[in-house]
Design goal:
The complex is a heterodimer of chains A (293) and B (293). In chain A, 73% of the residues lie in helices and 2% in strands. With 293 residues, chain A is an all-alpha fold. Chain A folds into two domains: 68 residues, no CATH class; 210 residues, MetI-like fold (Orthogonal Bundle). In chain A, helix 3 packs across helix 12, helix 7 crosses helix 9 and helix 11 crosses helix 12. The N terminus of chain A is likely disordered. Helices cover 74% and strands 0% of the residues of chain B. Classes of the chains: A mainly alpha (293), B mainly alpha (293). Chains A and B meet through helix 2, helix 4, helix 5, helix 6 and helix 7 of A and helix 1, helix 3, helix 4, helix 5 and helix 6 of B.
């Protein structure tokens, strides 16, 4: 980013009304300290508590740390009767399937919305954003009725279709912004130079959108990964995913088991975050997409 | 049709509809279809149990129930508080995190952690922290502020919904914060620098320069968050009092009741929820546009 006004010039001419010193004033530093401390405490503390609890065998009030440690909760997680691995496997299959479907269905649509002008565009945009705005509860209940007839309840595909509903708007929101940001000029240049469609996609389009696509896919994956009520309803309780395994423990008394299952539930998400953290922070068009409803 | 020119034109014409078709089809057929079936059942059309006459009975009994209004108010209050607080806090954090300082990259990474963490895991960590025998109560006991768990205020299963709001804040503040950061990055520092050289102080620069720039982003993220928290089922179910429950919890409870005769009411509640959400968001958009002008 280049600036029109050069700060050095402004500094050279003394202007008593221009506040140039506040950038790192004591006040700013204090605000910064408070903000960083609260990030560490509020965001870190719940996660650290989960980790400690998962290794606690006995941890009664008012002890600050467990009085007896152990791997009992983790042994329970590894045991088949807990259904944690079944849930993990189902959640993983499901989230990959939903992401794949969202890419197939959403990528062309995002491109149309991001790079083309056409009649009725804003109507289409609103239509695709509807699942974000209109509470999905009634639609899910209605779909449940339809899926019972179509025999799609209690199947992987049926649950994936329902997860696709909230996934599409978020995927399109991010990808349309990515497409809009990079434009069509480079592709046209490549085409004029004689590249065919496949080569244009392979060497021009894909490299340009790949980091945005990674983040959009991550969001889609996580939307499916976190779904509870839709899976419960359409899966009918027999298609078990991780949130369904976890839920009963959250209102129960066995905090160690709840903590251990929570950590299994969060682990893949953290891996995904580490993979995409750079894009989240750097490529402003990606997160900026959420600011464009 | 024999001329290649016409074929070309047909292709051009079909290009956009073909790109949008699959995504629109999924939303219209699945989401729209589900809504339609739900709407039909709320109006008493439920052939599976022999109801084929349309009536407003379900709406009449829902809307005249005083408990319905209590639940609606609770749902609205929680969503409003969560949305306003997360937007305000997020702007504050974004303004700090956009600065470069020692540890700013680490702080930004920590700030991103809640993004991929499922809501249920957030709830899990927060339960372990803020119940009456939770970690914070233990800090209180260690500091000599309290002796038994009952001395600690009931923050979970409380009437005010504090645990619910805290869970939403933990998840949504970083989400809004990252969107605001992205917007700030794409805007760049030049407007602020200009305002600064023209003699605007920090407060003027924030309210007259930065805020109007980030306002559209905040508007759309607050729509996303309000709609999400307004319709969320599992968090209030897990962390809220049983009576009054939020509307999604009431609707789902009715839906799962073995008495199928309660289905129309469950659907009517969710339709009213959806209509209220849409009306509120339309009003909010109007208001926000008016305020920005």
């Amino acid at each position: 980013m280049t600036t029109d006004t050069k700060p050095s010039e402004a500094e050279a001419t003394p202007q008593p009304y221009v506040d140039l010193t506040d950038k790192d004033s004591a006040g700013t530093r204090w605000v910064r300290r408070i903000a960083v401390t609260s990030i560490v405490v509020f965001i870190g503390l719940p996660m650290v508590t989960l980790i400690v609890w998962s290794f606690a065998f006995r941890w009664n009030f008012p002890n600050m740390l467990p009085t007896e440690w152990g791997g009992k909760a983790w042994a329970y997680v590894a045991d088949d009767s807990s259904r944690v691995f079944e849930g993990l496997w189902n959640s993983t299959k499901l989230a990959f399937l939903v992401t794949l479907m969202a890419i197939i269905v959403g990528l062309p649509a995002s491109r149309a919305l991001g790079q083309h002008e056409f009649r009725g565009k804003s109507t289409i945009e609103w239509l695709l954003m509807m699942p974000i705005i209109v509470p999905a509860l009634v639609a899910t209940m209605g779909i449940h009725q339809i899926f019972i007839r179509l025999r799609l309840t209690e199947t992987l595909f049926g649950v994936a279709l329902v997860h696709l509903i909230p996934a599409i708007p978020y995927f399109v929101l991010v990808m349309a912004s990515v497409f809009a940001n990079y434009g069509t000029a480079l592709e046209e240049t490549a085409r004029t130079l004689g590249a065919n469609k496949i080569r244009v996609f392979r060497y021009v389009t894909f490299p340009a959108i790949s980091s945005g696509l990674l983040v959009a896919s991550m969001f889609t994956f996580l939307i499916s990964w976190g779904q509870y009520v839709t899976t419960l309803l359409i899966g009918g309780g027999s298609f078990v995913t991780l949130p369904l395994v976890l839920f009963p423990f959250l209102s129960g008394a066995n905090h160690a088991n709840a903590a251990a299952i929570s950590l299994v539930f969060v682990a893949p998400a953290v891996i995904v975050l580490i993979m995409t953290s750079r894009q989240l922070g750097r490529d402003s068009s990606v997160m900026g997409g959420f600011g464009k409803i | 049709m024999s001329e290649p020119i016409t074929m070309q034109r047909v292709k051009e014409r079909l290009k956009i509809p073909l790109m949008l078709g699959p995504a629109v089809a999924v939303i219209v057929l699945l989401f729209g279809g589900g809504l339609l079936v739900g709407l039909g059942q709320s109006l008493g059309y439920f052939p599976a149990i022999g109801l084929t006459e349309f009536s407003f009975d379900a709406y009449r009994s829902v809307l005249t129930d005083p408990n319905f209004l209590r639940s609606l108010w609770l749902t609205f209050r929680i969503a409003l508080v969560a949305t306003v607080l997360s937007s305000v806090l997020a702007v504050g954090f974004a303004l700090v995190l956009r600065q470069k300082f020692g540890g700013s990259r680490l702080a930004t990474f920590l700030f991103q952690i809640p993004i991929p963490v499922p809501h249920l895991v957030a709830a899990s960590g927060i339960i372990l922290l803020i119940t009456q025998s939770g970690l914070i109560a233990r800090f209180g006991a260690a500091a000599g502020l309290m002796e038994v768990p009952a001395d600690f205020p009931a923050l979970v299963f409380d009437k005010a919904g504090i645990a619910i709001i805290l869970t939403f804040l933990w998840k949504e503040v970083p989400f809004v914060g990252l969107v605001v950061l992205a917007v700030l990055q794409s805007v760049g520092p030049q407007y602020e620098e200009q305002a600064r050289t023209l003699g605007a102080n920090a407060r003027q620069r924030f309210f007259n320069v930065l805020l109007p720039l980030i306002m559209p982003g905040i508007m759309s993220t607050s729509i996303i968050i309000f709609a999400f928290t307004f319709a969320n089922y599992e968090i209030p179910l897990l962390l809220g009092v049983r009576f009054p429950s939020t509307l999604p919890v009431v609707a789902f409870r009715q839906y799962q009741d073995p008495d199928l005769g309660l289905r129309p009411e469950a659907m009517a509640i969710s339709i009213v929820l959806a209509v209220v959400a849409i009306l509120l968001l339309i009003a909010y958009r109007r208001l926000a546009r008016y305020a920005v002008k």
